[in-house]
Amino acid sequence: MGWSTTLDLDRFLTEAGGYLSSRAAENMLLLTAAQAAGDAHRGGARHGGPHLFSRRGGAHAKQAPDRAVQATDAGPLFGWWEPPDGGGTRGAFLHDPAEPLLIAGRAPETAASLAAALARAGRSVCGVDASAEAADAFAAAWSQRAGVATRVHQHTLVYRLTGTQAIPGTADGSQVSQSPQAPRAPQTGPGLTGQLRTATAADWPLLVKWLTAFRLEVGELTGTPEATVDELLGYGGAVFWEAGGEPVAMATVTRPVMRTVRITKMYTPPEHRHNGYAVAVTLAVSHAELAGRASEVVLITDSNRPHRQAAQLGYELIGERAVLRFGPPTGAIPRLPTGPLPRLRSR
Q1: Contact 78/283 with Cβ under 8 angstroms?
Q2: 216 and 279: one domain?
Q3: DSSP string spanning 53-118?
């Protein structure tokens, strides 16, 4: 069967939704990108509106007829891979020309064959974001086909929340179990005092300020802080850790997709650092989500961050991802002359 492609998100979800949902934590980035693509196409699922993935069709779902994929299409392209002997979907991808290609599945040979499929569709690929094995295989095939250079942009580790963990420094060692929509009762202890609180519209200026500072520190360039805050407030996706009635740390959470969320931005202002607040807000919101609207909570960190930090928060490592970027064309490799070599002149 090989790769099948479509511009129709609903058909993609019918064909690949089951495969993606069975590995929702591992495929969180692709699921979130597909949700965003659906929101943009349908005018948004913001402010508590219906979620795209709650409408995924089953085995008998009616499939809209696919239209031919044209090279001039600037929107997202979706695809899924099936083995030659059938047996259901075993891989998937989402390609937005402005972003690195997202691949679900770890098989190197499958990722490598995707390069030919995208080339036939006339797509321009600026990079790839996938498991380390798949990213390397696709980059090698695409670089050879398109004659572009490849560089490593980022190497990340993917974690999934597995158990309950007490907030360090609390007096009673109690667990976090409530939804972030309700304030948490204050915790006191020798090392930490505070509570979790969901951000509201009144926090808009502070959120913009902190997200602007976060962007400057990490070099994030996509979107604007104002638009990000509007989106987060629409579904309760920003939370604070408060100490003494004052916000001292922040974390953001993605909109649930197939009951899976990801903890994304974590920020503590310089004047409040080294007090354990970042750990507190991350741990509190992780377990609040798990006890509320999510069955899976995902954390993706830079590979330079020690593994023990995620383990202390109750997360287990489930995969590694690589983001590779494609640079300017390298040009044709110079060929050696085929004729007789020039005779050297003796002195």
Answers
A1: no
A2: yes
A3: GGG---TTPPPPPP----TT--S-EEEEEE-TT--S--EEEEE-TTSPEEEE---HHHHHHHHHHH
Show the tokens assigned to 264: 């994304």
* Single-letter amino acid code for the residue at 79: G
User: Interhelix angle for 225-235 vs 204-218, to 10°?
Assistant: 120
Count of structural domains, the chain: 2
| pLDDT for position 186 | 36
Do 46 and 98 lie in one domain? The reply is yes
Which has more confidence, 315 or 344?
Answer: 315
pLDDT at 310: 82
| Mean pLDDT, residues 144-166 | 86
The pLDDT value recorded for residue 45 is: 44
Residue 344 in any domain: the answer is no
CB atoms within 10 A of CB 291: 15
> Rounded distance, CA 134 to CA 3, Å?
15
Given a cut of 80, whether residue 72 has pLDDT beyond it is no
Specify whether 211 is located in the same domain as 127: no
| Burial category of 328 from C-beta neighbours within 10 Å (exposed 0-12, middle 13-18, buried 19 and up) | exposed
Q: Are residues 188 and 104 in the same domain?
A: no
pTM above 0.85, yes or no: no
Is residue 148 domain-shared with residue 174, that is, in the same domain? Answer: no
Q: Using the 8-state DSSP alphabet, how is residue 257 labeled?
A: B
pLDDT at 109 over 90: yes
Q: Do 228 and 192 belong to one domain? A: yes
The residue range of the domain holding 42 is 2-157+324-329
**Rounded Cα–Cα distance for residues 101 and 93 (Å):** 7
